[in-house]
Amino acid sequence: MTPLLNAINDTLKRSPDHWAFRCNNHDLTWAELDQAASLTVAHLQDQGLKPGDRVACGLSADLELPVRLLAHLRARLIHVPVNTRYREPEIDHLFELTKPAACIGLVRDPQPGDANDIPIDAALILATSGTTGLPKGVLHTHRSLYSGIGSLTKLWGWDPNDQQVLALPLFHIHGLGIGLLGALLRGVPTQLLTRFRAEDVCQAMAAGGTLFMGVPTMYVALVDHFDAYPKAAKSFENARLCCAGSSSLSTDILRRFENHTGQRILERYGMSETLITTSNPLVGERRTGSIGYPIPGVNIHIDGDDQGELWVRGPTLMHGYWQNPEASQKALTQGWFRTGDRVRRDADGYLYHQGRLTVDWIKSGGWRIGAKELETLLERHPSVEEVAVFGLPDPRWGELVAAAVVLSDVIEDPAILLEAFLEPQIADYKMIRHWRFLDQLPRNAMGKIQKRSLIDG
Q1: By C-alpha distance, which of 192, 149, 429, 247 is closest to 265?
Q2: Nearest-angstrom CA–CA distance, 126 and 349
Q3: Structure pTM?
Q4: What pLDDT, in 10s, does the model give residues 342-354?
Q5: pLDDT (tens digit, 9 = 90+) per residue, 393-451?
Q6: Domains along the chain?
């Protein structure tokens, strides 16, 4: 039994008859969760699944999801969350990459395949954003999840007296890792919302919520809701912790949320490969614009004294990219993971995220979107000669996905044509929102495309 499973099993025994998860006015107690997970393990084993097999999970917010996650951990199966907004080509790629032996919430015929170098405690494969092409699979273990999510939830003081309101998507490390797994580790009753709506969040928080985690676009929507309905802010009066991640919050939104609710949002930083790396303090000064300090157990190095690329080392790191030793070796240097993010450290040790070393990924609405993936798709269109995808600053979304395109022939309404080409291939949040059609792309003396000039121009 791994430390992760020991901690979860202790949680299940603590208050067996108390509700653990709530969704669509239905409750699941800790005892019911324990029993349902055990039955699921037996069923999976009867189907012939064995440790190391992958199970693709396309469930959204649903009481079956925590049951499945716990069952997969207990059976030593590898849980592969599938983005519920993926289109068929994106799902095809994930299935081809991981070769699951079973799937849930998806109508698919899995074709399991052999795999190499699978650690005995392999637990989770997360799809990357595709910054260098097609998404890779990030493999995490029981050990890395326990080290990362365990340390973070302890740092934030999560316990069974809390009540979490969770409206995040449940297929990445923010919603699935911190939200769902964190609740299992710390025994935090959790209200699962099937989608984010400001009024639904307020209603759930008013019913006893003490923890809320969101992305900047959620907080923008909440602040707008409070501006229109000031009394709604009272729903956060019992909140103990409101967290934000995925991209930085503006000073204006931080100030307005605090003015409405009295809550100072806690910002943190992480990525699929490292889990949560830094956090502002639970007790103490939460500096505007800062991503805080490294969490316990995480070591950092800044390649350039107090300003430069952030390197991360420690037990929270991924085991590697799934079945991709070349990419794993490139990303990990003597145990250090090179994040590709630029940070600055002030005199008091607070870290500040200063963007990517390159402009090849975009943060929009809390989603991390790879420019290369979109460029590769657009280059397949016969009317596209060359293309550059980049992010444009936007006050609500953080960045809008934009593309500069050189066409090989004259076509009517090229934006409409290319949107129709992309739509069946990519999740809607990746869609190009701003188009520029140029005679040529800006390049430097060496011929490299200058995306920075497209952003600034």
Answers
A1: 247
A2: 31
A3: 0.87
A4: 899 999 999 998 8
A5: 888 888 899 999 999 888 889 999 999 999 999 999 999 999 999 998 887 655 678 88
A6: 3-344 (3.40.50.12780), 361-456 (3.30.300.30)
